[in-house]
Amino acid sequence: MITTVVTMRPIIHLILAFACVAVPSTNASADTHADLLDLFADWREFEVPPLLDGAPDYTAEQFAARQDEFLRLRARLESLQIDDWSIPEQVDWHIVRAEINGYDFNERVLQPWARDPSFYSTVWTYRSDVPAHEGPTHHALVDLWTYKFPLSESEEQRLIRELGVIPPLMRQAEKNLIGNARELWVAGIRDIKAERATLVSLKDKVVSSASAELVDIIDASIDASDKLIAWLEAQAKNKTGPSGIGKDNYTWYQQNVHLVPMTWEDEVRLLERELARAWSNLKLEEQRNRDLPPAVAAGSPEEYDALAEDAIRRIMRFLKEKEIVTIADYMEPVLQERKGAFVPEETRNFFWIAAHYDPAPLYSHFYHWFELARMDTQPHESPVRQGALLYNIFDSRNEGTATAVEEIFMHAGLYDDRPRSRELVWIMLAQRAARGLGSLYAHANEMTMEEAGGIHMEWTPRGWMKTEKDLLIFEQHLYLRQPGYGTSYVTGKYLLEGTLMDYAKQVEDRGEAFELRRFFYRLNAIDSIPISLARWELTCLHDQVRR
C-alpha cells in the first residue's frame, strides 16, 4: 500500500540514513559480482530464441524444450550469496532477477506470441524515445530509421537479410496465435495493416534503384502480410475473451518485473490523486491568469519554427543558469533534431496542440533524448546496465523521469515569465493520469479498451484528446499490450519525487546544501534502471526492494 511505504520512511531513515554501505553477513560468501556477470552473459544468450526457418522460434514446442535450461539459470541466480556485495553489485543482481522474472511472466501469463498479433510487427520507422521499443516485441526487428537512402550496397544487403525474417515469421504467427483476447486481436490487425502500408511505401522509395533481390523480399513480405491479415480477420469473429491480465497478475508483474513497489489498487489511488491535482492546479493557474491575454497557437510554419527555436534556447539557458542539470554537448543538438514542424490545426494530436502554444513543456519531456544520448556515448561500466533492460523494465525510470521534469522545471522557474505555459504542464499531467487510469481498469477487465479510452478522452482538459483518435487508440492499445506502461509516467514520477525527498533529507541532515544538479548527475550515473533500485544506490534505503 502507498500509505505503508510513506509511514515506514521515518523509521528507515533512523536506521539507514548515515551509512550507505552493504551490511556484512555473518557467513562470508565466495560468490562474486564476476559470477553474476558470467550468469548474465549466459542469460542474455539464452533469452534470444533459436531460429525456425530463419525467424525467431516462438512455438510452444520451443518454450517447452528450453524450460529446464531456464530453470537452471534461475536456480544459479537464486543460489548466489550477495549480502556482502556492494550496493551497486546487489542492484545488478536484482536487475538480472527482474529480467528472469519477466521471461517467466511472459511464458506463463502475457504470452504475446499467442495472444497479441501486434507482436509480429517487424518494421519500425522511428527510434523510440526510451532505451528499447515500447511493448512486447520479437527479437528480429527492422529499424528502418537506421538506414540512409539511397542505400549503399552493404546497407542493401543488410536490409535484405533483416526483411527476410518477415515471411517465415508471418507463417509462424498462424500457428502460434491461439489466444482468445478479442481486443488485442482486433487492434493487432490494425498494426499488421499499418506495417503492410510501410512495406508498400518502402518499395516505392527504393524500386527505382534497388536490386531485384530487395524488391523480391519486399514483395514477399507484403504477400505474407496479406495472408496473415486475411487469416486474422477470419479468426476475429471467434475471439471472445478478455485482454487484461487481471489485478493479481498486474500487481505481481509490477512488483517482481518492473520493480514498482505498488499494487493495482495503489496505482488507482495514485492516478486518481494526480488527476485531481492536475485538474485543480490547472483551474488555479487559469484563475491566476484570468486577466492575461489568451494564448495564441502558431498559425504557420514560420510561427511554429520561431516558437521551437525560442523554446530550445530558453530551456538550455534555464538548465545552465539555474544549475538544474549538468550540460553536455549533445543536449541542444538532440532537441534540435526533434523540434518537430508545423501541423495544420485540423490534424494536430494532443501533444502537438500543446506544442503549438509553447513547445517547451513537450521539449522538457524530451529529457528522454538526453538520457539516450548519454547511454549511447557514456555506457555504464557494468554490462548489466549497458543498453536497454529487457521487457520494458526501464519504463518507470525513463517515462517517470521525463514526466517528472516537466513539473520540476516549471517549479524551478522555467515559466516564470510565461504563466500561460504553466497551464500546459498541468494539462499534460492530467492526460497522462487519465490514460493510465483507464489502462488500469482495462487490465482488471472491468472496462473494455474503448471504455478505458473514454476515461482518457473525457478527463483530458479542454477536449484535446477528442480531436485526433489515432493517438487515443495507439496509447490504449500499447498499454493493454504492455502492463504498467500506461501508468509508468505517473508511478515513476511519484517514485522519483519520493527519491528526491529522501535524498534531500539526508543532505539536509548532514548540514549540506542541496543541489538539484548533483541529484540528477548521480541519478544519471546509476543509469536507466527501476527507480526503486536507483533510490537504493542514492540513499541506501532499500525498503522498496525485496528478494
Can you offer a commentary on this structure?
The chain has 547 residues and is mainly α. The chain folds into 3 domains: 32-114, no CATH class; 116-236, no CATH class; 248-539, no CATH class. 63% of the residues lie in helices and 1% in strands. The chain contains 24 helices and 4 strands. It has helices at residues 2-16, 33-47, 60-65, 67-79, 87-110, 112-115, 153-163, 166-176, 182-206, 212-236, 247-256, 264-288, 301-321, 331-337, 350-355, 360-365, 367-377, 395-411, 419-443, 449-458, 469-481, 485-509, 516-526, 531-539, and strands spanning 51-52, 55-56, 123-124, 142-143. The strands form 2 sheets. It has a two-stranded antiparallel ribbon with strand order 1-2. A two-stranded parallel sheet has the order 3-4. It is globular, with a radius of gyration of 24 Å.
